User: What shape does this take?
Amino acid sequence: MSVEVEARREASVWRRRRSFVKRALLLELRIYASIGRFVARRPAIAPGAAGFGITSPC
Assistant: This one.
């Protein structure tokens, strides 16, 4: 009884580096998108109005 096993190609150094760079770039872009959403959702305070923070004393 014989079983043919297909040899798996080992991941080359370049493939691993390319994968790492791609993952790092996508992570960086997600961080910038998150920061952009945070800035865009901040309420605009009208001129002359006083804003307040959640941690400010009452």
